[in-house]
Amino acid sequence: MEGITIKDGLKNMDFEKVTEMLSNAFWCKGIKVDEVIKGAENSALVVGVFIDTNQIGYARVISDKTRFAYILDVYVDESFRRKGLGQKMIQYILGHEELTDVYQWLLITKDAHGVYSKVGFDPVSRPLDWMEIRKDRPKRI
């Protein structure tokens, strides 16, 4: 596809558009722009896919930039899916100069295992080692 660029950094993101996209995602239905911005500001990296100036994709990374990184909120606008743009975003993230020391990457997916396996992800090797605290999600009006 022509006119496609990947950009990173808060100043490059269209947070109104990102909120519109993420609020349709099953994992954060109804998310508000202030939550999206707060999450982005507290992330190690935010990335967007653009056609000219129109943002059509988003992802972010939480990381110590040394050992561990967690990729989340990966989203590509429905009308642009199945064109490899999600993979391009992940490859951009994995190759980002600020994250070159990271040796353990994690993400959670319900339905995109094929996308992530194409860029090197495998199921967690020791799933019984992982633990979590899961609280109820905040109510969104």
From TrEMBL:
Keywords, in A-Z order: Transferase
Protein known as: N-acetyltransferase
InterPro entries per record: Acetyltransferase_Butenolide, Acyl_CoA_acyltransferase, GNAT_dom
GO molecular function: acyltransferase activity, transferring groups other than amino-acyl groups
Limits of the N-acetyltransferase domain: 4-138
Tagged with keyword Transferase: yes
